[in-house]
Each structure stands twice: as C-alpha cells, then as structure tokens.
Amino acid sequence: MASLDQIFLTVDKSFAELTEDLSRLIKVLTFCIPFIVFFLGLLFLFLVFIILISFYLQCMNYKNRVVEYNPELGIKDPLFEK
C-alpha cells in the first residue's frame, strides 16, 4: 500500500503538470486570439460589404426598370396597380 507521502508527491506532480499545461495554453491563446479576432472582423466586414452591394444592385435594378405600357391593358407595374 502506498504511503501518504507518495500519494501527496503524486498529486503534487500531477498538479504541477496541469498548471504547466495551462500556462502553455494561455501563452498560445494570447498569441492566437488577436489573429482570430482580426480575421473574424475581416470576414464580418466582407459579409456586410456583400450585403450592401447586393442591396445597391437591387435598388439600381428597380430604379432602371422598364415600365410596360399596353393601351388595352394599361400600365403593368406594381407601383401603379390598385
């Protein structure tokens, strides 16, 4: 049966390894997180840009539309329909 000193030594060694792993993880994360945030920000700006461009193109398409006029049927346009 293991003595109490051996148990404490094993627990202390395991705790030291755990804190060393946590320290290494914190160092890696403090280095990587700014890059991750930067690239997520770029992705967000790109998506906003795409949404704005698509909205602008839809508005220009609506602005430059051709209104069909048929003397028999009248104007075929959603704005003029009742």
What does this entry look like structurally?
The protein is mainly alpha-helical and 82 residues long. The protein has a two-stranded antiparallel sheet. Helices cover 73% and strands 7% of the residues. It contains one helix and two strands; from the N terminus they run H-E-E. The longest helix has 60 residues, at 4-63. The protein has one helix spanning 4-63, and strands at residues 68-70, 74-76. It has one domain (11-76).
Question: What key phrases describe this protein's structure?
Answer:
82 residues, mainly alpha, two-stranded antiparallel ribbon, 7% strand
Entry summary:
It contains one helix and two strands; from the N terminus they run αββ.
Identify low-pLDDT runs: none
Share of helix, binned: over 70%
Please give the alpha-carbon distance between the first and last residues.
93 Å
SSE string: HEE
Individual helix count: 1
Oligomer: single chain
Structural class: mainly alpha
The biggest sheet amounts to: 2 strands, antiparallel
Task: Round the mean pLDDT to the nearest integer and report it.
Answer: 81
Question: What number of structural domains do the residues give?
Answer: 1
Q: What is the molecular shape?
A: rod-shaped
Keywords: Membrane, Transmembrane, Transmembrane helix
